[in-house]
Amino acid sequence: MMRARLSLAVLCTLVSAGAMAATSHSWGKPGATREAFERGSRDCMLKAARRDVSGDTPTEKYLRGFEALERENNMPPMPAIPGDDQNFVRSERQVLLRRMYRPDQHVDTLQGQLQAEVDRCLIATGYIRFTLTRAQERTLRHLRPGSEARKAYLYTLGSDSRIVEAQKVIEP
Fold first, then answer.
1. What angle do CA 169, 141, 135 make, to 5 degrees?
2. C or N terminus of the chain, fewer CB within 10 Å?
3. Average pLDDT, the chain
4. Sequence spans of domains, the chain
5. Is there a contact between 136 and 23 (Cβ–Cβ < 8 Å)?
């Protein structure tokens, strides 16, 4: 149960972070109503968010590392060796375990996989990725993520066929 709870928590964090990380590009669907625009993107995000990632290699590797670090954290203190600083020894072991298991790298890999799934879904449902201009990026930076003003601004850009067509990213 701990494994399932951890996987869901990691997944939610990954999808949220991925959605907010890309500020030089956005997605558009010219002519879509605001409701359809937001529903379509939310559906693609939820599709990836609801996918069971417990069997994915990055998740399994992350969990192995997490469990090893947890075991290390729950170990009773080692007997003192004269001249050794126990906090330093424990800290050194933590660093070595982190290097060995590389949890951040596995989280990044999983986040990339989930973001690619969201991107494929958006493309399949008619969304077009476009590059934001510097002025558009500057405006977006001043709008709090998740705020109504930010959503309205992104909708205004993404529903305008002239903006999307002029700034669209050519997908490989």
1. 55
2. C
3. 79
4. 2-167
5. no
